[in-house]
């Protein structure tokens, strides 16, 4: 059960007699994920390990809200990643996963300022059978913007939700580091999208763009996807048009300063998920045509309780390795993971 610290009686001015003060709350939450990992890249020896974050990145965070009255709220989120296997932090920046503050209203939507997920990732979490996680099994292996991408220095606006529809747009003045006054020295980025979730249907359309500080072509990624739940099975599909992008694992669309891939590719993914027993069975096949990346993945999660589940997955994808991606030769990368995931 989430531990919620309710500061219901915190008043901004205790000396102001009779003044009605807003209520606020802060929630501590987190996820701990660890398990056995086996991986084999063609031409290399296999790796056996106890790893953190096989299915979902381990993290803890604080989220808070304050009711400002008249339907307006102040919100914040601070989230840090860590490794369960060795206790290390996942980045030199403590709240590298997310750190933002904002205002929200049912009538006017929500504004967030700070480091946060781009829409190519957040709007496709329910469309990818793997939830854009499970390492190379996720659609981020071929869909650049869906690869768990977060941008710093971003202002993001979400509209209210109307009959399942929501739109959003964000702009980062420098997605990877602090802004500087020099012309062309900032990695500026745009993220935009439409999302629909109502009944059995979920669909999303996103456009992400990065203007690299080092020059070169502007990286562009357009994604379209949908998932439909028939009850006994849920079908997933997505397609992307990606241009002028060169990618390392965990990076976003960037200009082709190191021309590893072709300057354009069409990626697509098809998948399915179904409730099996006290868990869920899911799988997908994905391909990026001009990058010559293709392969299949399958996984299963079993709920031990409302907060804890066990999982297993296997993935076999060509031209993806655990360092980066290469289209130079037909390299097969296999991953197998069995682990435990607990939420608090």
From TrEMBL:
PANTHER family xref list: MAJOR OUTER MEMBRANE PROTEIN P.IA, PROTEIN YDDL-RELATED
Localization in the cell: Cell outer membrane
Porin domain sequence ranges: 7-321
Signal peptide: 1-22
Membrane topology note: Multi-pass membrane protein
Assembly notes: Homotrimer.
Keywords, comma-separated and alphabetical: Cell outer membrane, Ion transport, Membrane, Porin, Signal, Transmembrane, Transmembrane beta strand, Transport
Protein name stated in the entry: Porin
Pfam hit, one: Porin_4
CDD domains with a match to the protein in the record: gram_neg_porins (cd00342)
Organism lineage: Bacteria, Pseudomonadati, Pseudomonadota, Betaproteobacteria, Burkholderiales
Highest taxon, organism lineage: Bacteria
Predominant location: membrane
């Amino acid at each position: 059960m989430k531990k919620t610290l309710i500061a219901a009686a915190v008043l901004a001015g205790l000396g102001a007699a009779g003044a009605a003060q807003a209520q606020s709350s802060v929630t501590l939450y987190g996820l701990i994920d660890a398990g056995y990992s086996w991986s084999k890249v063609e031409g290399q020896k296999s790796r056996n390990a106890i790893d953190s974050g096989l299915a979902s990145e381990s993290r803890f965070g604080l989220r808070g809200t304050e009711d400002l009255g008249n339907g307006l709220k102040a919100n914040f989120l601070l989230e840090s990643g860590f490794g369960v296997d060795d206790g290390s932090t996942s980045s030199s920046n403590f709240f590298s996963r997310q750190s933002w503050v904002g205002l929200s209203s049912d009538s006017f939507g929500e504004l967030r300022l700070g480091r946060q997920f781009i829409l190519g990732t957040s709007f496709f979490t329910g469309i990818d059978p793997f939830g854009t996680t499970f390492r190379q099994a996720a659609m981020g292996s071929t869909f650049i913007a869906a690869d768990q991408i977060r941008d710093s220095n971003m202002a993001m606006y979400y509209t209210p939700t109307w009959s399942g529809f929501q739109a959003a747009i964000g702009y980062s003045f420098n997605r990877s580091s602090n802004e500087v006054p020099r012309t062309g020295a900032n990695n500026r980025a745009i993220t935009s999208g439409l999302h629909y979730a109502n009944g059995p249907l979920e669909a999303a359309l996103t456009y992400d763009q990065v203007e690299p500080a080092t020059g070169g072509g502007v990286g562009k990624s357009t994604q379209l996807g949908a998932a439909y739940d028939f009850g006994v099975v849920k079908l997933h599909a997505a397609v992307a048009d990606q241009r002028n992008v060169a990618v390392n694992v965990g990076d976003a669309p960037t200009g082709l300063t190191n021309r590893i891939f072709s300057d354009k590719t069409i990626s697509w993914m098809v998948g399915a998920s179904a409730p099996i027993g006290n868990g869920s069975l899911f799988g997908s096949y994905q391909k990026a045509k001009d990058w010559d990346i293709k392969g299949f993945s399958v996984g299963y999660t079993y709920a031990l309780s409302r907060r804890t589940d066990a999982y297993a997955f296997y993935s076999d994808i060509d031209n993806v390795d655990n360092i980066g991606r290469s289209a130079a030769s037909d390299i097969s990368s296999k991953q197998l993971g069995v682990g435990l995931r607990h939420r608090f």
